[in-house]
Design brief:
Blueprint: E1 3-6, H1 11-20, E2 25-26, E3 28-30, E4 33-36, E5 39-42, E6 46-54, E7 64-71, E8 76-81, H2 92-103
Parallel strand pairs: 1-6, 2-8
Antiparallel strand pairs: 3-4, 4-5, 6-7, 7-8
Length: about 100
Amino acid sequence: MSNISYHYATVLKAINELREKGYTEDFNLEENCLTCISGNFNHDEFEISDIYFYEGESNPDDEATVYGIVSTSGVKGILVTGDETTSSPMENKVIEKLLIHRKRK
């Protein structure tokens, strides 16, 4: 079950809190998977454990989401995204999973 936090502290604070919890990898969104030094993970090979959502008070372009992610093989890491709605079609499965998890709360 995801732990979704909506607060207006900094993105750096969320990243630091996740690092303290053992989220050591830095995930990147590429084509149809998440990538990090430990490997590539398709949309069905990871779960989202924590979400920190930030909205820009005056500019919607300031939106950011910090995801704590755990792969099925136990790799724990962080993905920081901006506006997910502008992703390429190749990223849709991963983005869809991220958005579904964010909307659960």
